[in-house]
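thread: overnight batch results

M.L. [08:02]
morning all. the overnight job finished for the chain we discussed friday. pasting input first so we're all looking at the same thing
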Amino acid sequence: MLSTFSSSISALLDARAEGYTLPAGLYTREDVFGADLDVFYRNHWIYIGLECDVPEPGDATVIDIGSTSLIVLRDDDDNIQVVHNVCRHRGSRLLDAGPTVISKLVCPYHQWTYELSGELVYAPHMGTNFDKSCRNLKTVNFKSIGGLIYVCLSDTPPQDIANLEAVMEERLAPYDIRNAKVAYQTDVIEKGNWKLTIENNRECYHCAANHPELCVSFVEQDFGYDADTLSQEDRAEAEEYQRLYEQRIKAWEAGGYPSAPVEQLAGHATNFRTQRLIISGKGESQTADTTAASAKLLGKMSRKDLGDTHLWGHNSWNHFMGDHAVTSMVIPLSANRTLVRTKWLVHKDAIEGVDYELAKLTSVWIATTDQDGELVGRSHLGVEDPAYEPGPYSPFTEGQLDNFATWYVERMRAHGY
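M.L. [08:03]
and the structure it wrote out:
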């Protein structure tokens, strides 16, 4: 039988109506926040970073998710490792948050020392009968998919991550994200629940009024419209664009660049969607003038006209273009605070001031992320208001939000709520 704690959350899940936003408590309550961390950040695959965050042996970085702290590192054999940031002696944190360079992992408390593989090699004053092999660092289930690192903190991770792996290894291969480099990173704390952050990212209903920089490179028709309300001229324009897009998809795929939409959403454990979209204007990149920000293209790319390959999951969104990529991950901090960490990637040999200018590379998504943060904050204030009641999603522009809310309820149910 479900506990009172679970039953109260269950009642909120019961109250969610198809086609409508979630009940307020699912965004605002602390017990729901705790359940969300457990279900979606411990028992599902989440994106936490990149292989190129740790490009050389000895490079390490710490990512905190709730009370869990993880170390992503590159070991002496040039392999990626993900281990818990917990000494096997008395639990001390080994490394502080953020990036660092190490030759071994040495606990600052009592100097227990681990190889970069996680093997315990030195534990002073523990006696001759002490078995070090039983005290190696705890490892984490992880996968590098095209250079993007996904982890699952559960001992029984969802197996359908294999579908994401199969789709995205092929799609990301030309960009060679494993051998890119991080040109810039921002951390933005949004004053809202993580689900509001994801919902805001899943639609562009709000884009025309709020994202002038981003809309320069986006094609409005890609994000849905009510054809019945369009003028004859606008309807003809939308239909012509659809024909153009279908032709472009065929041409891209004929050239060896998978482009058609692939999605695994409601009805599955691992949530993702990918599609290659046309970039408007000059068609090269998501920059202020839609031309490439970097003269040195990513990986094996030789063309600037391959649009924007986007990929999103339940805690991330990513855009891969010929010249650069933008990746964002979402980490809940509290019921009403969410970290959005965004990274801009360029070819590993690209030189700032020679191959690219940082302002051109970053300006569009810096502005967009700041704008989104304000919108999420306004949304959270609204769902906290006693006057809030779930509102209807637009069937034309917000269908993916309905899909996300449906998936959210399904996965909560699957974990006993």
